[in-house]
Amino acid sequence: DVHTRRRTQDATMPPRRAGRGGGRTGRRGRGGAQDSPAPAPRPAPVAAPVEDDDMYQEPYKQIIRPHNQLTNLSETELKEEHTRVLTANDPNKANNITKYNYKDRCYKLDPEGAGDHLKIHFSLDGCVLHKDSQDAKEQEAYEAQKKEFEEEERKKAAQQAAEAGEDDMEAETQESGKNQFNYSERAAQTFNNPLRERGVATKPPPVVGFSATVSQWDIYDSYMNDYSNQMAEQEILKNAEKKKGAGGGQREATFDEPTQATAKGSKDDMVHSVKMSAALKILERMANQNAEDEIFQDFKYWEDASDQFREGEGSLLPLWRFQTDRTKRKQVTALGWNPKYPDLFAVGYGSYDFMRQGSGMICCYSLKNTNHPEYIFSTESGVMCINFHPNHSSLLAVGCYDGTVMVYDVRNKMNRPIYMSSIKTGKHTDPVWQVFWQEEDLAKELNFFSISSDGRVANWIMSKNELKMEPVMQLKLVSTVKDDPEETSLSGLAGGCCFDFNRVSEHLFIVGTEEGKIHKCSKAYSGQYLETYIGHHMAVYTIRWNPFHPRVFISCSADWTVKLWDHNVAHPIMSFDLGNAVGDVAWSPYSSTIFAAVTSDGKVHVFDLAENKHEPLCEQKVVKRAKLTHVNFNQVEPIIIVGDDRGGVNSLKLSPNLRKVHEPYDEEGVMIEHDPVQLQIDKMDRLLAAADTKPAAS
């Protein structure tokens, strides 16, 4: 094929004379050829002066043939037309794709699809409805109804305006004649609130006129009078402190009553008064309970429903963790619930590490305010044991690492004990591991017992102005002779670690020693042991009488075991290996067969011997990277508290399976009347009867 190119040139030329043509046309090429070839164009003549009327004539068009256009084409070739067809095929689309046909067992050409050559450059979903469709009819009906409603509203407004005397209401409601498609109203009229004024007339305060002539002597007398009043107040406080030091019957009467001097001194100052302090404490507790409402709801009402489907298993629900910044580097060495207020408990802080001894601390926490302790007391030496008085709930006996014993009154805001042992009145030479309040003697003097590593059990009597020490017993070291098992030799003193007094026989108490032996002792026989129980191989950390059965006690030791004893039998009735050193063990206050123990791997083990005599019902890890040191049951609520060696105390709620009382029921499901204490004693008796009382073969 021969391709031709055409160039068209438009030129604005001056008008020619009337006898000449408007222009010549040459040959256009093959597609648009004329009947005869056109001669070559001649040069345009020089334009004559143009008049003003000829300036507005339309320009003419002159077609010029390019110099490289073919001129040797015949008439037939010039008349021949070449058609070009535009197709929508995609040149990048492959048209010879071959696929294997498994049905015909041969390769076949893949036919092109309907949309293979389709390319969508722009797509827009419209909202146009067909006028005959149902949707369009519904839309027209809605618009007509809306228009009628607006017309009725406009007529009502015009009628109301006419009744009110406004004539130009009709003009305001006329539609605007502005272009609705290209108009933007930017002005706005805001609603102005009406101004209001309020005035209050108050009653003026009374005005009293005063005038006086003041000399230097008047000023001096005023200062001296004020100074004498201050000295008199200080003298009253000193006398009140001296009266505090008085013991005996006078002190007993003041244990349960706040001091009058404190009440009198705080009566004048309203901000620092007792009533203001009580009000602020209530507000603080309310704010804390609102902030931790979910935990308080769980503590009071939540019960683990899964206990119904897992007989013989239980769980512990973590509630709060009690800790302060001042006790983070100390260890929890003692726990004790208050006998009068079931929400209050005391925590003793010290250290069991001989190389890291420092000051101690006592914090009294309440479940009503879990963020901050109610009372804080500091001691020079680490606190090792604490015990609340069963009758005078504000008295707290404390034993320290340096052998000192103290008595605090938790209501006293001064950070010092009301009684403290000294070298003059008597003192232990080694750490005091446990203290225990006793019944008042004939003289009505309060007293408590203590045990120490120096091998002595002492009785401390709170006399008038000092703490008197009376030795009760020296723990002599017992070593068994191999040649003659019946003969024993006494040499040295054994280090006492723990002790406990029988609830029924007040004179009877048991002592655990560092050598692993347990001795049954009596207050009446201070020179010898009533019985020695051999079963542990390392130090006995805790020993507890059963709160219901008078013959049963339990012990835990660093040899990883917890042992159950009958004080009439020289060997343990049951033994439980917990896999780690057992720091503490405690009986539950509601069942004679339930006890809890804590180990150095951070686990709490809860046993119910009436349900399972071999495995714990619950073995749960409470803390990470910390050792549990102590555990204690609440006397009213179903919770326990456990302390660790990082200064924290965790409170845990027992699930229903861990606090069963096993009350008797008849065949119809009605509870049989019974004595709760005797029920627990009978339950323990059945357990002892079923246990093997023969000693294990060595």
Our measurement of the CA-to-CA distance between the termini, rounded to an integer number of angstroms, reads 121 Å
| Shape estimate | extended
Could you give the count of β-strands?
34
Strand percentage: 25-35%
How large is the radius of gyration?
Answer: 53 Å
Helix content: 10-25%
Largest sheet: 4 strands, antiparallel
In spatial order, strands of the major sheet run 5-34-33-32
Give the class from helix and strand content and strand pairing: alpha+beta
Mean pLDDT: 80
Tally the helices.
Answer: 9
Oligomer state equals single chain
Query: Uncertain segments of ≥5 residues (pLDDT<50)?
Result: 1-38, 247-266, 481-490
Written overview of the protein:
This protein is 18% helix and 27% strand. It is α+β, with helices and mostly antiparallel strands and 698 residues long. A 4-stranded antiparallel beta sheet has the order 5-34-33-32, with helices on one face. The longest helix has 31 residues. The protein is extended. The N and C termini lie far apart (121 Å). The N terminus is likely disordered.
Sequence-ordered SSE layout with sheet pairings:
Layout: E1 8-10, E2 61-63, H1 75-79, E3 98-101, E4 106-109, H2 134-164, H3 169-172, H4 216-245, H5 248-254, H6 260-265, H7 274-291, H8 293-301, E5 316-322, E6 331-337, E7 344-350, E8 360-366, E9 375-379, E10 383-388, E11 395-400, E12 405-409, E13 419-420, E14 432-437, E15 447-452, E16 456-462, E17 467-474, E18 476-480, E19 488-493, E20 496-501, E21 508-513, E22 517-522, E23 531-534, E24 540-545, E25 552-557, E26 561-566, E27 574-577, E28 582-587, E29 594-599, E30 603-608, E31 618-621, E32 628-633, E33 639-644, E34 649-654, H9 676-690
Antiparallel strand pairs: 1-2, 3-4, 5-34, 6-7, 7-8, 8-9, 10-11, 11-12, 12-13, 14-15, 15-16, 16-17, 18-19, 20-21, 21-22, 22-23, 24-25, 25-26, 26-27, 28-29, 29-30, 30-31, 32-33, 33-34
